[in-house]
Amino acid sequence: MAKALAVKTQLFEYDEAVRNSYPVFCGVDEAGRGPLAGDVYAAAVVLPPDVVIPGLDDSKKLTEKRREALYDEIIAKASACCIAAATVEEIEQLNILQAAMLAMTRAVSGLDIPVQCVLIDGNRLPRMNLPMQAVIHGDATSASIAAASVLAKVARDRYMLALDQQYPEYGFCKHKGYGTKAHYEALAAHGISPVHRRSFLKNLT
After folding, report:
1. Residue 30 assigned to a binding site
2. Which of 59, 84, 118, 188 is the right S-S partner for 106, CB 3.0 to 4.6 Å?
3. Mean pLDDT of 48-73
4. pTM surpassing 0.90?
């Protein structure tokens, strides 16, 4: 018999407290600010009242297998959700912070229901004409932000697996674009690809 997954009740209690002031709100998080290659992703999630998602937590604390399972459950249980990205070209044009903010804005704009408030993981807020709250360590504090962290992480990992099919010489399937020793060795051997962030690799250009 499979072991039952624990419900991290404090995540949902935090959201219930927010819901007292804003009955319909979303949590937002991004994935992929640090890698040397690929787009940056963000997700926005609206969870209904009294929802329960066993095992939900900060995506960084979860295994890949658990994130994949949660991805489907979050999409099934969410009142609304949207995953968006900002491209490598936009990262180069704007800088990575502003590109991440752009991806977050796109994710919120893509929700198919209006929200009254946006909870953003971290200490920076994008520009939106909505009430917003920055929540430091939000993916370990709010269920909605944790859910968004899972969707963004899984979606970006899948995108990097697709890039691996186009550029197998870089090993994106293993490091997802992060600056590992193997990744730098591949860059030294093969040069910078069109999906690399040149501003992150100034020492190689």
Report:
1. yes
2. 84
3. 92
4. yes
